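#struct-queue
[09:14] JT: dropping the first one here, sequence first, then the structure tokens:
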Amino acid sequence: MKLAVFDFDSTLMDGETIEFLAREVGIEQEVKVITTRAMQGELDFFESLQKRVSLLRGLKVNTVNQICESLPLMNGAGETIKELKNRGYKVVCFSGGFKNATVPFAKKLELDGEFSNILHSKDGILTGMVGGEMMFNNSKGQMLLTLQKLLGITRENTLVIGDGANDLSMFQYADKRVSFCGKPILEKEANIIIKEKDLRLLLPSC
């Protein structure tokens, strides 16, 4: 058995979920600046996530779900996941984003699992608070280590794919470390570098 772990935003999905949501309330540029700095490793991920989600306070959950369910897949995502599963991989998604997006996409792509965060709401309205499984800089690495132990999968049989600083913690537990159109902080630690938006380009390395 082998394990492939994909980041969601700007990896499985073409864009940043929180920026699509911010666009709805007219604060996309403000959120984008924070997201970019966090993905470059310039800001603490936990603090940046809390700040960005606080700006979404007042957005209707129904609107959030509609936006999340229509997010654009990354080029080649479906074919790549299908082929990896054919090659014996368990395929999961780790996201610093939100279950409103990762749950429907996990079903659509037939992933074996997804781990992400939850936007807190009350009476159908976002409160501006967030919690969940992927809140910190090291969350993805810790979850990967847990999965490897549960499934009995070695680092030699582990493939990780991401684009930003919060994906870095996975790299120490995987022999195949993919920077997918990644930020410099991630790219310098990767041993597979893809600079085009086509996930099928990673298949020759698998």
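[09:21] JT: and here's the second one, same format:
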Amino acid sequence: MLTKRIIPCLDIKNGRTVKGVNFVDLRDAGDPVELAEIYAANGADELVFLDISATEERRKTLADLVLRVAEKVNIPFTVGGGISSVEDVDILLKCGADKVSINSSAVRNPDLINELVAKFGSQCIVVAIDAKEIDGEWIVHLVGGKVPTELNLFSWAKEVEERGAGEILFTSMDNDGTKDGFANQALAKLSELVNIPVIASGGAGNTAHFVDTFKEGKADAALAASIFHFKEIEIKDLKEELKSNGIPIRL
């Protein structure tokens, strides 16, 4: 069985790490480079670095910040935000990112997934999906959760896989920042539907939530932000708890 992964997420706005609830009410959480160094030293398996306003403001992810992070950490990290072309990805990978995450641009131009996979390989391409449950159906949203689409989470995830993406990062907008646990029912359905890794995002509040998302949600990795940024849970302690619950994890 593959080991499960713990992934701190650094949401970046104006060069600072921020965190909100349900995608709004952002507060400062520190310097992203300093946080990245700490997480790498404390046992994080990977990092995700998202310029959360890049798409909305129609500018590119801050490549210089990616360079600074890459110089300081020795674990894989994924970069997302405002990526809409082969050229964008080429720059970020050359700056030191291991993977890129695309979201709004993939929905608007699904062929972009195929293009990126053909150029860089599926192992580099993560498709992030932000979705919210509306009248019993999980609806995909764009632009940092601000714009609803007509896409269903599960049908879109299947298409993403068929187009060659290497991973799916699923964020439940309903759970984001609430610390009430991950959307495990949707995660389990998603994990059974696709054959590529699914990263759970949105709702982590304690160690039990991680145990539940690996056992009940069948997630391959779990991502969290505020509980790590504000030192509510230490990654080493979390991993010990996961191991004691029989979950394969790298200590």
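[09:30] RK: nice, looked through the second one.
[09:31] RK: The chain has a mean pLDDT of 91.
[09:31] JT: good to know. The longest helix spans residues 32-41.
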